[in-house]
Amino acid sequence: MTAEDIATKPVRKLDEAEAAIELERLATEIAGHDKRYYEKDAPTVTDAEYDRLRKRNTDIEARFPTLKRPDSPSDRVGAAPSEKFEKVRHAVPMLSLDNAFDEEDVADFLARVRRFAKLEDDADLAIFGEPKIDGLSASLRYEKGVFVQGATRGDGYEGEDVTRNLNTIDDLPEKLTGKVPDIFEVRGEVYMSRADFTALNERQAEDGKPVFANPRNAAAGSLRQLDPRITARRPLKFFAYSWGEVSEMPADTQSGMIEKLEKFGFSTNPLSRCLNGVEEIIAFHAEVEKQRASLGYDIDGVVYKVDSLALQEQLGFVSRSPRWAIAHKFPAEQATTILDGIEIQVGRTGALTPVARLRPVTVGGVVVSNATLHNADYIAGIGNDGEPIREGRDIREGDTVIIQRAGDVIPQVVDVLLDQRPKDSKPYQFPDKCPVCGSHAVREPDEKTGRLGSVTRCTGGLVCAAQAVERLKHFASRMAFDIEGLGDKQIEAFHADGLIAQPADIFRLKDHEGALKTREGFGEKSVANLLASIEVRRDIALDRFIYGLGIRHVGETTARLIARHFGTFAAFREAAQGIGGDADDLSALTDIDGIGPIVARAIAEFFAEGHNRDAVDALLAEVTPQEMERPGADGAELPLAGQIIVFTGALEVMTRPDAEKLAESLGAKTAGSVSKKTTLVVAGPGAGSKLKKASELGIEVIDEQAWLERAGQ
Fold it and tell me: Which residues are marked as active site?
């Protein structure tokens, strides 16, 4: 199962190995989103999608606690402060909040507080509720009532010094009024009203400058300017709702502290108030949500905090958040409109993605005319787990649909109003041909479940214009044809100018030698070197040739297995074409140890596509894949026959691909993961989980020097 498949698998169905792979993916993806959101002020996913990723990570860790990673998102708040600013160490950490998404989550939160504090079910428990402002968190330090320093949240422990920028915000007092503690850090949210945001974007557009995606991005980008004069021209505001280091607490409740903040000169949210009991809390959430559109500023939920500060201290913190507070998120904003048509877009990996073309409608202050439909199953009313979604309602052109938006990325269609469906509507037929190149479009089966995968892909990898640039980059990459001087930038430029469209065109670049010499950044010598690098690749190792074709699921190891089994490209091609794209008998390929039905079917589908065969023929007119000796063909007993070897860690004498090739030349098979079938693990410095698993399974482990001796080097 691929990482892509694991990412869509329900948590309850993951095994331990899959869970580890998914936790690694989630840690990397969430860290990237944190960096883009907190450092770059340019999020690429909605808040709802981000919350879903974090919840999936938490759910997997709860099911497999021993797999929790040192870099787990569960233990991380925000992102590291930018190097552009001086750093400020928070005297009291600025942590994040856990999320509640429904009434049950809220009830669970209250029950946990009562259990932890040993409160009876009927005992009073005052909760302070306030709107959750969608802005940028900041902390302001006052000494003897005078503002001395301001910082962003950063990673929760260290933020960016934005003192001069905060000084420009009109509703932030430079000097506090009344009796104020000697040291007082106030915390809150820097935000921009929707009206000010619209006016700012109009000015940006008039000046020919980029416009902002939403008020939160505008506020964050304005506060994090190196030049405070730019910040001063931006209409920023501030709501105070919390505090950090305080030399002497002026109140003993959350609500009392908010009253004090107001008396000191800060703006606090007028909707905030004390609540008691689940029913009152849920009613407050509904009340605030109804006012959401008319508030004039963006909020994305309601925050509940235990009102008693003594009880807050007793409850304390867990990981990245306090036990005494929770954020009750709103559902993503929705609207109703007509779906005029469904258009298929082809991505750079060949995935066919359906997009709804909508009658324009305003959702969350943004005019929306497109929405994602995800995949064929989603249109048909089927979820990733094969179960019905939307109670099985399909989506059709002409339908009245409910769309949902929660941020600045493309919205999605979440439901259909059947009572408004046109009588002559017909179910949408997902295409089985690529709309870009006309090649077959297929869905691969999941090897474990037997169900078709969710993604439909174009099989015309070598000829599809939508995939061309990425395929050409792969073809010229180090482990494929390894053409020196033909890097990503050169491929992009040559393709844009029409010099190369498919791999064979690379070997015809000599026909454009004159034009190449006139290009910016190219001279006579660089062109000569590039053409020479291309010429030496006209004779190419068979496994590199096969890998370079970019057949789905055929990586370096699989390409070597194929090359060693068949010996010649002609034999391999004959076997693959003999199967046929839709044949049930894949034995010509699955008889090769290490190749399963998914890989075999992908190979068969590649050669079943006439466009691909034409592109391969064109390539074979330019290059000659070398024959590969088939181990044991002469009847000789190879020294490592029957061995299954895994290389892990950093090898110092040879590269890992070279080590694997050496092992295979001696009759061994190589694998990327350790299993009960593994007979030997070669571990270099930095070996981690594979080495640990080998020890648990009692598999022989040797270092690189011992491996070289065993291999006769």
Answer: 132
